[in-house]
Specification:
This protein is mainly alpha-helical. The protein is 62% helix and 0% strand. The longest helix is centred in the first third of the chain and has 39 residues, at 47-85.
Length: 202
Amino acid sequence: MDPASQDINLNSPNKGLGVERSDSLSDVPVEGAVGNSVNPLPPGLTEEEAEELRTELTRVEEEIGTLRQVLSAKEKHAAELKRKLGLSPLNELRQNLTKGWQDVQTSNAYVSASATLDDITRSEAYKKTQETLSQAGQKTSAALSTVGTAISRRLGDMRNSPTFKSFEDKVGNLKYKVVGPKGNGEAVTPTDTTPTQENPPF
C-alpha cells in the first residue's frame, strides 16, 4: 500500500484506514435499495409486484412524515391556546384527577363496594361489635382514670412522708454547699448562710 492511496484528511471518517482508491461507494450494497441482490424477492412475488409494493411503501412513509408534521403543528397550536387560556400543566393534572375520581365514583365496582359497605354497617353483627368496642373503650378509660388517681394520690402521700422530706432537705443542703448562697439569684438572709442543726449535712 503506497502513501498516496491512504486517506490523510483528518476530518474523514476513514482516517488512518488503508482504503484503496479502487474501492468506491457504488460497490457497497445499500440495505433496502431497489434491485439489490442482497435482499432477494420472497417466493411467489414477481418483480412488478415488488416494485408496486416499494412504491406503496414510499407513499405511506411520505404520508407518515406529513402526518407527523401536522400533528406537531397541532400540538404547538394547542399549547398556545392553553397558554392564552391560562391552563397550566398543574391545572390540567388537577382536572384529570378530579375527572378520574368522578369516573371511579360512578363505576360499577365502586357503587357495588359502597353498597356492600352500607349493608355491613346496617347489619346487626356490625352494630353489636361497635357497641362492644364502645363499652370496652369506656371501661378502659374509667380504669385508666382510676389508676391515674391512685398514682397521683400515692405520689402525694410519698411526698409528704418523712423519708421524702429528709431526702429533700439533704438535696437542698447539697445544693447550698455546691452552688452557694447566691445560686439562683435568691436573696440571702443571715439564717440561710448557715445550715441548721435540724438538717445536718450528710
